[in-house]
């Protein structure tokens, strides 16, 4: 009996024998017994489903013989890496680790603090049975809790899993890239990701985005392996695909759209190639089913909460720029330019180079191009359809694909230049230009280590200016960070009458807030009152664009 079959039997036994009431009480306590018990029943059913699908994969996955691949051209079968490649990738991982652990504890921002307070500090059972906010990245919260138990309660431990996922995603990009491009381009793509401002930034962000990138890359590599295989090799790749994509979904639910992209590509291939692919046309379907079943297992305990929370619109009833597609374009340009020397001009040139990369991959294979782009397109469409805020970070799972497109674009550009009389220098020029691109990217890394939101600067400014009879009001998103980080329990105002009442009992009133776009949308009357009655005493910027921390005072300061 194979190990997969043994594992399936173990899951089946666990699903059938798991005691509902005892498990629910162990996870959620007596006071949440009824709520958690429903999730345990779903978990039992999901475990049985997992067992049946793994058994089906073992039994039905084709073996032996040679068949026509679903994608007969445009994909590569990676060869065992030589010593130089092994040392090169190993060196990149060492460098990536050093860059991501440096200043790991500096300046957390609101979403990280929210994760820290409401999830990572809770017992594991409570984390696994709570999904009351879209800020709950389930697998990341579990990872952060384990990190805190191991390293102590602090920002370093909170962010450590993101750094680990970030380092591993460099290796994952190398694994994926070798399926679609040359060894040199794969290595330079991994190098560019290693020294990318944006990748370092997200690797120091206590959220699930680097884990999402890691598992999406690994799952996509397994998917391309299924499309390229001519000699079916059993069930291992199917289970690997299902597990990787389920982990991606468990860390961020938008990974469902990556699985959907793979499914659409597979359906397109069935329509085009049909029976010509032989038994190879069915393994991807088993992979999708396994991914769905494993993801259901991950969310089983919180499934009713999960669906309600995930489908809830962002800031219902509030008019905010975050839902405007034009804002998404503008914000994406601003955020991308933030990590580039030369800013917008460099970004514009990079987009032109990216078009060359897209054209090159299109010539290589339309299916390869679809595997690089379709996930991002589906993500944008889903966010628009559900009324979700259109944050650029939701597209970070495609970061590795965009890097590959850029690297191919530079290589293509040099190839076009070489045709003008430099054919003998083409290979050396490609290596030189790609090296310069990576060095230029590395030059921006010091910017990534600044505070994401400068709550410390705002605190010091306010404490230095505060008089003994003054009042301080923390508005909206400013309340949690100052209480969690510094223990300041300042007065709060959820509406204009509350703020006016506080003003009446103080000769001078200070207001501190962050993220103006949200405050303007959530409390429009308070925003108008601040603009009319208060003056800005200090504005403290971080690397989160639009997340500045603002200190205002009434009466306004005089020049």
Query: How is the main sheet built?
Result: 5 strands, mixed
Strand order of the largest sheet: 2-1-3-5-4
C-alpha Rg (nearest Å): 26 Å
Helix content: 55-70%
The mean pLDDT is 89
The rounded distance between the terminal residues' Cα atoms is: 82 Å
Q: Tell me the strand percentage band.
A: under 5%
Instruction: List how many beta strands DSSP finds.
Output: 5
Number of helices: 26
What would you call the structural class? mainly alpha
Number of domains: 3
What does this structure look like?
The structure is a single chain. By secondary structure, this protein is mainly alpha-helical. It has three domains: 3-60; 83-315 and 322-448, no CATH class; 455-554. It has 26 helices and five strands. The chain has helices at 3-17, 20-28, 33-60, 83-101, 110-120, 124-128, 138-151, 155-177, 183-194, 197-203, 209-228, 236-251, 255-273, 283-299, 303-311, 325-338, 343-364, 366-386, 399-418, 426-442, 445-448, 455-465, 479-486, 496-504, 516-522, 524-533; strands at residues 471-474, 491-492, 509-514, 535-540, 549-554. A five-stranded mixed sheet has the order 2-1-3-5-4, with helices on both faces. β1, α23 (479-486) and β2 form a beta-alpha-beta unit. α9 (183-194) crosses α19. The longest helix has 28 residues, at 33-60.
């Amino acid at each position: 009996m194979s190990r997969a079959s043994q594992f399936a039997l173990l899951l089946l036994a666990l699903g059938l024998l798991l005691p509902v009431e005892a498990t629910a009480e162990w996870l959620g306590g007596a006071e949440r017994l009824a709520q958690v018990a429903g999730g345990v029943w779903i978990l039992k059913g999901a475990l049985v489903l997992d067992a049946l699908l793994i058994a089906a994969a073992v039994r039905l996955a084709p073996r032996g013989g040679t068949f026509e691949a679903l994608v007969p051209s445009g994909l590569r079968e990676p060869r065992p890496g030589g010593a130089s490649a092994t040392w090169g990738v190993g060196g990149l991982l060492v460098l990536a680790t050093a860059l991501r652990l440096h200043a790991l504890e500096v300046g957390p921002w609101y979403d990280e603090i929210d994760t820290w307070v409401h999830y990572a500090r809770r017992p594991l059972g409570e984390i696994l049975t709570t999904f009351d906010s879209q800020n709950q990245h389930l697998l990341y919260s579990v990872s952060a809790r384990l990190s805190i138990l191991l390293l102590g309660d602090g920002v370093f431990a909170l962010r450590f899993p993101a750094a680990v996922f970030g380092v591993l995603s460099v290796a994952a990009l190398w694994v994926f890239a070798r399926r679609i491009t040359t060894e040199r381009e794969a290595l330079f793509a991994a190098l560019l990701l290693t020294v990318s401002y944006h990748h370092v930034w997200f690797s120091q962000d206590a959220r699930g985005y680097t884990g999402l990138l890691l598992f999406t890359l690994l799952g996509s590599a397994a998917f391309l392996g299924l499309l390229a295989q001519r000699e079916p090799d059993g069930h291992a790749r199917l289970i690997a695909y299902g597990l990787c994509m389920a982990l991606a979904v468990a860390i961020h639910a938008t990974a469902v759209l990556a699985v959907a992209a793979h499914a659409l590509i597979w359906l397109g291939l069935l329509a085009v190639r049909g029976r010509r692919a032989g038994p190879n046309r069915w393994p991807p379907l088993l992979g999708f089913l396994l991914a769905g079943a494993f993801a259901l297992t991950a969310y089983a305990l919180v499934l009713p909460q999960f669906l309600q929370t995930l489908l809830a619109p962002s800031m219902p009833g509030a008019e905010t720029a975050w839902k405007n597609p034009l804002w998404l374009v503008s914000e994406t340009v601003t955020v991308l330019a933030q990590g580039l020397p030369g800013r917008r001009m460099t970004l514009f040139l990079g987009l032109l180079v990216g078009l060359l990369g897209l054209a090159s991959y299109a010539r290589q294979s339309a299916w390869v191009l679809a595997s690089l782009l379709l996930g991002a397109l589906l993500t944008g469409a889903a966010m628009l359809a559900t009324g979700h805020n259109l944050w650029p970070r939701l597209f970070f799972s495609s970061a590795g694909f965009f890097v590959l497109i850029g690297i191919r674009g530079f290589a293509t550009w040099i190839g076009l230049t070489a045709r003008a009389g430099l054919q003998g220098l083409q290979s050396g020029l490609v290596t030189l230009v790609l090296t310069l691109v990576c060095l230029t990217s590395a030059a921006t890394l010091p910017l990534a280590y600044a505070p994401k939101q400068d709550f410390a600067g705002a605190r010091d400014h306010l404490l230095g200016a505060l008089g003994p009879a003054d009042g301080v009001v923390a508005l909206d998103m400013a309340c949690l960070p100052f209480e969690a980080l510094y223990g300041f329990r300042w007065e709060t105002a959820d509406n204009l009458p509350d703020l006016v009442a506080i003003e009446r009992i103080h000769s001078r009133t200070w207001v501190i807030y962050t993220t103006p776009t949200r405050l303007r949308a959530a409390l429009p009357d308070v925003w108008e009152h601040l603009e009319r009655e208060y003056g800005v005493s200090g504005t403290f910027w971080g690397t989160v664009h639009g997340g500045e921390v603002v200190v205002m005072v009434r009466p306004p300061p005089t020049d």
